[in-house]
Structure formats: structure tokens, C-alpha cells
């Protein structure tokens, strides 16, 4: 049993501190997450600044509650230079994991070059393994097209598809490109664990169709960073959900580090395009 105390910093945002403390006390009283030690920071920008200045020394994770008018993820990236080009992973209810391979741009005409796309697909696969304990996640890459005709665009053919092929040759089970509208309408997405969207507009459109609190993780941060992107005003519900998710990530990271010390090797059967373990 994991008995080590996990230290989590919580910035209040727009929430009432006493309400969040009450949620934490209930969990402690019922011995749920009793191995978690929480430090609350003030609300507003003051709390974000203070938490960020101390988070990397002594804390395992930081939870940022929603703050009206502030893009917390953007703030983190501006203040923490290591996150400037880092990968973000969204989790929304029971919906599979989502990332963007275009550095959060909303311009559908812009894509990084093929090699950078390969790198981001690799990072996404690694994040799903280490943060969410998915041994060999199956990934789908969405098309740059907004149409549901299933036809690949020029960018798909010249940038995305070569990146998918190169990532597949590195033993990452990634497939595409798929038209997001038709793909999700047919429930084909149920065969996959994670999705690479080409812009946030596409990703948000899919997330909006599913109930749940959208939690955004900075996958390459030195500690676990999580914030919520949601229209829900129930701060206690948001806090409880984020606390559970962050605790799960911390547990998975520890287990992954122990399990990956002597990893099982894989090779690709080129003839049948199947992965074989040995």
C-alpha cells in the first residue's frame, strides 16, 4: 500500500475557501485520500503567483480552480518557461483523452512540420502510459477538414499522414486521419484511447457533446499541473473531481516509474502491421 503523503497545492480561484476545506475534511474523515496533504493558496492572481513560486519546491502537484477572466494554462506557460511548448492533455468525464498537436492554435491552416508532429504524437503516447496507466494506447489523429465527407486534405496528405506513418514505425499504434464529425457520430472513437486534434475549436466541439468536467493537464511539467475548463459553477464538484484525478495521476506515475525499470520490448510485424511482444 502507498502510504507516502502526497503534497498538493490548491489555488482558490473564484471558489469559497471554506467550501473547499469542507470537501477536503469530509474526504479525510471518511479516510478517502487520507494520504493527501493539501495547502490552500489565496484566490485571484495573487494565489496563482504565490503557488507557482513555491510549487516546484516541496509539492507533488498543483490544482488551479477556475478564475474568471484568466486562462490559467496560458498563465502557467508564460510564467514557467519549461511549459512554453509543452503538451497538454484533456480529460472529460468518461470521454477518452485528448491533446492538440498544433500548440493550441485555432488557425486550421497552420500545422507544425512532420517531424514535430511525430514528436508530439510520441509525447502524447508517453503521457497516456505514464499519467493514466494505458500500456499501449491506440491513438487517432483528426483531419484538418471540417467536412464529414471523409476526404483527406492537402495538409493531411503532406504533413499529418507522413507523421502518422513515422510514429507507427516507432511502434506507436496511431491511425488517421479521420473526419471528426463523422468519426464521433459513428462511435468509431470507442476503439481508441486518445485523440490528436489539429485545433482547439475541434476538440472543444467534441468535448461539449459529453457531460463532465474538462480537466487540463500539463503533461511535461516538473510536477502535476491541473486546471478545469468548464461552465459548471459548482466549485465543490470541480474540486472533488480534480482532486481524484490528480491523485490518480500521481499514483499512476509512481507505478509507471517502478514498472518501466525493465520494460517488455516490442517489435512490429511489418507484413501484418501487428505488434509482437518478446
Question: What can be said about this structure in brief?
Answer:
38% of the residues lie in helices and 21% in strands. The protein has 8 helices and 12 strands. The strands form 2 sheets. It has a 10-stranded mixed beta sheet with strand order 2-1-3-10-9-4-5-8-6-7, with helices on both faces. It has a two-stranded antiparallel ribbon with strand order 11-12.
Topology:
Layout: E1 6-11, H1 17-29, E2 36-41, H2 44-55, E3 61-64, H3 72-79, E4 88-92, E5 95-100, H4 114-132, E6 139-142, H5 154-169, E7 174-178, H6 180-185, E8 194-197, H7 200-207, E9 214-218, E10 224-229, H8 235-259, E11 266-269, E12 274-277
Parallel strand pairs: 1-2, 1-3, 3-10, 5-8, 6-7, 6-8
Antiparallel strand pairs: 4-5, 4-9, 9-10, 11-12
| Rg, Å, rounded | 19 Å
Structural class: alpha/beta
Uncertain segments are 104-109
Assembly state? single chain
Largest beta sheet: what is the strand line-up? 2-1-3-10-9-4-5-8-6-7
Distance between the termini: 30 Å
Number of strands: 12
Quick one: overall form? globular
Chain-averaged pLDDT: 81
Number of helices: 8
* Beta fraction: 15-25%
The helix/strand order is EHEHEHEEHEHEHEHEEHEE
Sketch the major β-sheet: 10 strands, mixed
Helix content: 25-40%
Amino acid at each position: 500500500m502507498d502510504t507516502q503523503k502526497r503534497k498538493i497545492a490548491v489555488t482558490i480561484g473564484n471558489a469559497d475557501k471554506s467550501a473547499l476545506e469542507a470537501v477536503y475534511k469530509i474526504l479525510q474523515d471518511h479516510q478517502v485520500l487520507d494520504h493527501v496533504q493539501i495547502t490552500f493558496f489565496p484566490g485571484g492572481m495573487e494565489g496563482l503567483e504565490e503557488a507557482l513560486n513555491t510549487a516546484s519546491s516541496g509539492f507533488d502537484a498543483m490544482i488551479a480552480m477556475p478564475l474568471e477572466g484568466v486562462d490559467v494554462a496560458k498563465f502557467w506557460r508564460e510564467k514557467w518557461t519549461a511549459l512554453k511548448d509543452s503538451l497538454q492533455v484533456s480529460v472529460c468525464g468518461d470521454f477518452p483523452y485528448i491533446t492538440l498537436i498544433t500548440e493550441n492554435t485555432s488557425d486550421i491552416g497552420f500545422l507544425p512540420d512532420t517531424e514535430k508532429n511525430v514528436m508530439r504524437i510520441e509525447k502524447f503516447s508517453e503521457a497516456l502510459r505514464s499519467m493514466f496507466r494505458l500500456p499501449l494506447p491506440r491513438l487517432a489523429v483528426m483531419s484538418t477538414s471540417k467536412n464529414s465527407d471523409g476526404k483527406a486534405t492537402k495538409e493531411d496528405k503532406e504533413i499529418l499522414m507522413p507523421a502518422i506513418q513515422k510514429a507507427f514505425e516507432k511502434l506507436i499504434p496511431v491511425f488517421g486521419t479521420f473526419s471528426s464529425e463523422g468519426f464521433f457520430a459513428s462511435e468509431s472513437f470507442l476503439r481508441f484511447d486518445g485523440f490528436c486534434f489539429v485545433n482547439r475549436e475541434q476538440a472543444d466541439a467534441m468535448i461539449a457533446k459529453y457531460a463532465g468536467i474538462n480537466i487540463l493537464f500539463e503533461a511535461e511539467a516538473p510536477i502535476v499541473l491541473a486546471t478545469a475548463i468548464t461552465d459548471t459553477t459548482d466549485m465543490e464538484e470541480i474540486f472533488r473531481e480534480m482532486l481524484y484525478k490528480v491523485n490518480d495521476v500521481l499514483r499512476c506515475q509512481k507505478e509507471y516509474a517502478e514498472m518501466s525499470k525493465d520494460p517488455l520490448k516490442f517489435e512490429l510485424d511489418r507484413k501484418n502491421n501487428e505488434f509482437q511482444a518478446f
